[in-house]
Amino acid sequence: MHKISILLITLLFSATSLFAKQIEVCATCEIKTIKEAISLADDGDEIIIKAGIYKEHGVILIDKSVKITGIDFPVIDGENKETILSVRADNFSISGLKIINVGQSYTKDFAGILVSRSNHFTIENNILEEVFFGILIEKSHNGIVRNNTVSGSGMNQAGSGNGVHMWHSSKMKVSNNTVFGLRDGIYFEFVKHSEIFDNISYENLRYGLHFMFSNNNEYHDNIFTNNGAGVAVMFSKFVKMKNNQFIDNWGSASYGLLLKEIYDAEIEDNLFSENTIGISVDGSTRINYKRNTFLRNGWAIKIVGACYENDFSKNNFLHNAIDLSYNSKINTNTFNNNYWSDYTGYDLDKDGVGDVPYRPVKLFSYIVHKTPETIVLLRSLFVDIINFSEKVSPVFTPDNLLDNNPLMQRTDDTN
Amino acid sequence: MFKILKYSFYDLMRSRWSYVYFAFYLALGFVLLFLNNDINKAIITLLNIIIVLTPLIGTIFGVMYFYNSKEFTELLLAQPIKRSTIFLGQYLGISISLTLSLVLGLGIPFLIYGLFESSAIFDFGLLLVVGSFLNFIFVALAFNVALSNVNKIKGFGYAILMWLFLAVIYDGLFLISLIVFNEYPLDKYSLFATMFNPIDLSRILILLKLDISALLGYTGAVFKKFFGTNFGLFVSLFVMVLWVVFPVWRINRKLRKKDF
Questions:
Q1: What is the C-alpha separation between A257 and A246, in angstroms, rounded?
Q2: Global pTM value
Q3: What is the mean pLDDT of residues B222-240?
Q4: Per CB distance under 8 Å, which residues of A are interface residues toward B?
Q5: Which residues of A are less than 8 Å from B171 in CB distance?
Q6: Domains in chain B: how many in total?
Q7: In-domain check, residue B166
C-alpha cells in the first residue's frame, strides 16, 4: 500500500512535469517577445528568456503560476515609459533578469517589477538598473525577494522611488539584496511578520530602510551606509533589530537610526559608527538596547521626548562627541552595565565594574539641546569646566539618570 | 633687528626653557601616539591641548621674558638703535623659538609614526599653523600687557587674566549670550563672535576640518559654508594675521610714547 502511494506520487509529479512546458524566448526563437510567451503560458510552465535586449514594458502576468527565468541576464529595457513587469499570480518566480529604464512619474508608482495580490512567490537574482521603483509589492503574502541588485540614479526625493517597496503584505523575506541610488532603499508600510536580512543599502537619497506601521518584523545583519538620513523606523510595535551596521550617515540632518513611536522593540548587537546621531529616539517606549556599539558618532543617542522604560545595557559608547542627549528632568529609563569610553572612575575591587556611577548626560549636551547654536563651543575649555562642575553636583540634568555599574572594559562584541 | 632677534633667540636657547618646552611637546606627541596609534584621534586630543596650552605658555613666556630682560633692554635703548627694532627683535625671537619648539616637538613624533602616509597630514599641518599663530598672537598680547605695566606682579596678573578671559571667560559670556538671545537668529552672530577670539577661531577652524561640522546642525551649516571653503579658510587666516598685526602695531605705538 505504502509503495503504491509513493509510486502514485512519483507518477503524478512526472505527469505534471510532462505537461509543464518550457517556452523559450530569444531573438531567433519562434517566440520573440516576453508578452507573447506569457500569453502562451499555462500554470506550471517555465518561460526561459535567453540573453538579448527586449524593449518591452507593460508586461502583465495574471493568474498564471509561471516560472520566468533569464539566462545570462537578458536585458528588458522599459525605455523610460511605465512599469515593466506587473504580476498578479500565486506560486510564480522571476529570476535572472536585468530590468532597466523604468519610467519616472510624479503621479504613478512605476516599478521594475510590480507584484500585487499574490502569494508564494520568489523574486531572485535579478538586476534592476535605472529604476523609479524597483520591486514594488502590494497586498501580497509569503514572498521571497533575494539576491537582487536594485539601483537608480535619483537626483531628488520627489523624482525617485524606492528599491524594495512593500505595502500591506505579510510573511515576506527580503534578503541579500543590494540597493543604492534610490529614495528609500527598502520601504515597509503595513507589513507584518516579515524578515529583512543580509541586505546592503547605501547612498540612497533618504533612508536606507524605512519602516512605517509595520509590526512584528525582524531585521538583522543588514548594512546601511552613507544614506541621506539613515534608517527610519516609525509607528511600529515588536520590531527586532539585530546585528545591523549603521555607518557613515553624516550630515546636518542625518542619523544612523531614527525611532519614532516604537514600542516593545529589541535593538541588539548593532554597530553605529560615525553617524551625526547614532540613534535619534522620539516617543519610544519599552525598548531594550543591548550589546550595541556606538563608535565615534556625534551624538550616540539623542532622546528627543517621551521615552519611557527603555533599558540600555551592555552597550559600548566609544569616543562619541556626546554620549547621550536627554531633554527632560524625568527619567524612567535605565542604564546599566554599559562601557563608556569617557568614564574616569576606578575599580578597586577589580570585578570589572566601576565603583563610581557614570553620568552619561553632560551639562553641555543639555544646553545644546535647549540652544542648538551653542554647539559651536564644543571642546572649549569652558565647556569642560561646566561639565565637570555638573558632574560633581548635578543641577540641570536628571540626577537619577546614571549608570550605576559602568564596565571598565568594553563588552565583548564582534564589531 | 636680526642681530637682536638672534640675541634673544640664543638667550632663550641658553636659558633651557625652550628645550623644556620642546621636550614637553616631544613627550606629549610620543605618548599620544603610543597610547593610540590612530593619528586622526591623536590630532583631536592635540587640538584640546594646543588651544589651551599654547596661548598660556606664550603669555607667560612673553611677560617673563619682557620683565627679565628689562636691564638688557635698557642697555640697548642707550645705543643708537630704533626702539621698534629692539622690541620687534625680541618679540620675534621669543615667538620663533616657541614656534620652533612646538613644530619640532610635535612634528618629530608624528613623522616617525608615519604622518606622510596618513591622510591626516593636512589637518596636522593646519594644527601646527594654528598653534604657531597662537604663539605669535599671545606673545604679542603679553608684550602689550607688560609694556603697559611697570609693576611686575600687576603685569603678570593682567597677562594671566587676559589668557583666562580669552580661553575661558569669553566662551562663558558667549554661551550665556547665546542662551539669552535664543529667540533670535544667532548663526551670523556666533560666526562674528568667534572671529573676536583667536582661541575660538582656531578651535572652530580645526573642528571643521576634522569633520565634526555635521554635528553643528544648522549653525554648523552656516559655519561650514563659511569656514569650509577656501575663501573662509583664507579669511580666518587673515583674521589670525590681523590678530598678530594689531597687537604688534600697538606695541610700536606704545613704544614711541613710553618713558623708560
A1: 7
A2: 0.81
A3: 78
A4: 250-252, 254, 276, 298-299, 319, 321, 367, 370-383, 385
A5: 377, 380-383
A6: 1
A7: no
Give per-residue pLDDT as tens, B233-245: 888 889 999 999 9
Nearest Cα residue in chain B from A276: B215
CA B40, CA B120: separation in Å to the nearest integer?
Answer: 6
Asked if this assembly's ipTM is beyond 0.95, the reply is no
Instruction: Indicate whether B11 belongs to any domain.
Output: yes
Residue A15 has pLDDT above 50, yes or no: no
Indicate the range of A10-24, A274-288, A355-369, B217-231 predicted with least confidence.
A10-24
Please give the residue of chain B at the shortest CA–CA distance from A367: B179
3-state helix/strand/coil string of chain B: CHHHHHHHHHHHHHCCHHHHHHHHHHHHHHHHHHHCCCHHHHHHHHHHHHHHHHHHHHHHHHHHHHHHCHHHHHHHHCCCCCHHHHHHHHHHHHHHHHHHHHHHHHHHHHHHCCCCCCCCHHHHHHHHHHHHHHHHHHHHHHHHHHHHCCCHHHHHHHHHHHHHHHHHHHHHHHHHHHHHCCCCCCHHHHHHHHHCCHHHHHHHHHHHHCCCHHHHHHHHHHHHHHHCCHHHHHHHHHHHHHHHHHHHHHHHHHHHHCCC
- Mean of the per-residue pLDDT values of chain A: 88
**Residue A121: is its pLDDT beyond 90?**
yes
B67 to chain A, any CB pair closer than 8 A? The answer is no
User: Cβ of A252 and B217 within 8 Å?
Assistant: yes
Q: What gap in Å lies between CA A135 and CA A196, rounded to an integer?
A: 14
Does B215 reach chain A within 8 Å, measured CB to CB?
Answer: yes
Mutate to test the interface with B, among A376, A382, A384 (most CBs of B within 10 A): A376
| pLDDT at residue A7 tops 60 | no
- Give residue A71's pLDDT band: very low, low, confident or very high (50, 70, 90): very high
How does pLDDT run across B145-182, given as a tens digit for each residue? 999 998 999 999 999 999 999 999 999 999 999 889 88
For residue B56, being part of any structural domain is answered with yes
Total CB pairs under 8 A between chain A and B: 78
Chain B residue numbers with beta carbons less than 8 Å from the beta carbon of A367 are: 175, 179
**Is B164 part of any domain?**
no
Domain that holds residue B178: 2-156+171-257
Q: Taking a contact as any Cβ pair under 8 Å apart, which residues of chain B between 127 and 146 contact chain A?
A: none
> What is the reported pLDDT for A53?
92
